[in-house]
Amino acid sequence: MNKQRAKEIASSPVMANVTCDGIPVYIQHIDDDNDMARIYPLNQPDQEMSVPVASLREHGEY
Question: For a tag on the chain, would you pick the N or C end, based on fewer CB atoms within 10 A?
Fold first, then answer.
């Protein structure tokens, strides 16, 4: 995923179908300086992590 699209998803009130390594995730924030995304798995909101934006995949309708 590109950084601009990740930022759009992070700021949108509409839930997008995004995965990281096949795991559905929620994008909290995009770090412009490092091209990193702050995410957490939808089923484990306490497991926040930072991953490269390029590792995120958007899938069709949620």
Answer: C
23-31 and 18-20: which strand pairing? antiparallel
pTM of model > 0.85: yes
Would you tell me how many other CB atoms lie within 10 Å of the CB of residue 61? Answer: 5
Q: Do residues 50 and 36 make contact, with C-beta atoms less than 8 angstroms apart? A: yes
Angle at 7 between CA 23 and CA 4, to 5 degrees: 105
CB 41 within 8 A of CB 25: yes
pLDDT tens profile 15-41:
899 999 999 999 999 999 999 999 999
- Cα torsion through 52, 12, 21, 49, rounded to 10: 60
